[in-house]
Amino acid sequence: MGIDKPACDFTIYGVLGDLTRRKLLPALYQLDKADLLHDDTRIIGIARHKITRQEFIEKMRHNLQTFVKETLDEDVLSRMLARMHYVLVNLDIPDEYQRIKEIVDQEQRILINYFSVAPFLFGDICTGLHHADIITPETRVVLEKPIGRDLESSRVINDTVARFFNEDQVYRIDHYLGKETVMNLMALRFANSIFTTNWDHNTIDHVQITVAEEVGIEGRWGYFDKSGQLRDMVQNHLMQILTLVAMEPPVNLNDDSLRNEKLKVLKALRPITEDNIDRKVVRGQYGDGFIRGKEVTGYLEEKDGDPSSTTETFVAIRVDIDNWRWADVPFYLRTGKGMAAKRSEVVIIFKRLPHNIFPDSYNNLPPNKLIIRLQPDEGVEIEMLNKVPGIGDGLQLQRTMLDLSFCEAFNNSRIADAYERLILEIIHGHQALFIHREEVERSWTWIDSIHAAWQKSHEPPKQYPAGSWGPVASVALLARDDREWEE
Ligand code: BG6
To answer: Catalytic residue at 451?
Structure first.
């Protein structure tokens, strides 16, 4: 087994599903192309359809041709297809896991089990693997979200998996942690002294985190309606971004150091309850509207939609973190579907200067801002004031941007997809970029309290036209604090 490139049997449950097609296969292709897979690594697809290996290979070839966003390199494609095997397993029949045992070789390769299936099947798979006596201390298991829909159901899933695997064998995916720019948050904060020393209540006024999507529900109505934007996006992706922005410096980048610091932030979140929810949370649902000039149907009228649904497609929240660093510094989160643009960013708004010596230019000097663009068009901007060049007309100030586009700064180098990084980390057995069980549970506890308050209030979500930035109430959320969203 090579040290730099451990050989694995990368086993995907749900190999004919959407995630495999769109994300896992293209990511494995890129890893193979970059020569990051061991020669002996194999990709073993598990599903319950009766197809021959050849039919399976043809399907995989077709998927790669469709979803890899570049012209395929024929050598890499053949190498990758040669790694692929197919095993038919009905996941709820333990005896059938013997077929997996016959194909994997744990003496030679690390066994990675990627559960790209609905969580209610996790228990069956674990039981089947146990029944076939496949699980060793080296075996790894990868869990896709959602890990439950509340604290209780997440515990059931985690308990089931924990009966067969130790926490250090479990990799819970939040694909935002694999995004280049999300990772860069750590570089920005902890590799640059101008930020390390200016990152607390002394200099920062507030923080805004926006994850906006143009797309609506796109054929996922049934799934999404049971979930809603709070569970689908905030509980995981936005909370992870929040913890990376707010955490204390970890002592190093090892698995536990990083996860412990994130956990401390989750523990310090001030609960939102029925007493304060009106002032802290806005819940929205998109109606008809226009996105990029195209007419869009409202959430309730979408295919398979139920006109009486009160599920939210937008949420904005004022989050308070009760610790020393962030006393009186609110974090405003907002995320929605059917919005004006696809845009994810973190904006740090610094405090205003205590005194202005340039009375002619501004009554009130605007604050500096650090804008971290997560997607698209990844980069970092700093908004600052400069003197307008010239003589004779006093000292005029103007807002200017220091703009670092990653694409330009790094010579148009390709930005890897989140799944490429995460799969590589799993192969190498690094857990820092995966969610610890305790993080999942803390985060659900906080989210459950918001849900409980919504249930008591019976207030329906506020409507917003598709193609806008959310309900007017979201503007009011910040206006109450004398602030406004960055548009
Ligand atoms: C998924 C959500 O986790 O993230 C989807 O379930 C959402 O609803 C997606 O569209 C967004 O991911 P990205 O990488 O496109 O921002």
So the answer is: no
